[in-house]
Amino acid sequence: MGTFRDKGGLWENADLMKLATPEGFADDPAAVHAFYNMRRAKVRACQPNAAHVALAALQQDPRADVTLITQNVDDLHERAGSRDVIHMHGTHLVALCAACDARWPAPEVMRADDQCNCGGQARPDVVWFGEVPYHMDRIGAALARADLFVAIGTSGVVYPAAGFVRVAKQAGADTLELNLAASERASDFADARFGPATQVVPDWVGEVLT
Known about the structure:
Blueprint: H1 16-19, H2 22-27, H3 29-45, H4 50-60, E1 69-70, H5 76-80, E2 86-87, E3 90-97, E4 103-105, E5 122-126, H6 136-145, E6 148-152, H7 164-170, E7 174-179, E8 191-194, H8 197-209
Helix pairs in contact: 4-8
């Protein structure tokens, strides 16, 4: 499954203003639904990788108190066994009524004429550019009480998530970046390990649990 911002990623040949804004959806809901239908089908065909499984094991260990926050809009963390995952950018596996904010499981294929029971237009429950991420109060509380903040596989360019490391550090948390390569926020971290997430995350979790 492709990433969004890397070279060759999903956004490289996509017009963000047409596919990931409320205005783009209003102009051409069929095109937006087609994009997210493709993403939904790919996610459902994928399986959690070793990094997802390792994080679930860490969260399930009674010695650990883990708050898992993701910018991803899939359910791979949950399928790996993680619980109570904070989806700050929503999920394209859920449909959202643009009129009344009702939510329900998204069908495999969503269409421009899909409607809520109230008559409002249905859209993917994904936070688009210009919209406020979900659960920010809960995320802020978790950052304030954290002993360790770990960022995994992020570019470090999308706010507000890119600023979480500084919030956690100012609250007294130690900081660690696990990434394929140094992110835009690498200098804000006290420590870092670089390599594929399927390698560095299980290795780090194994050290923590032993």
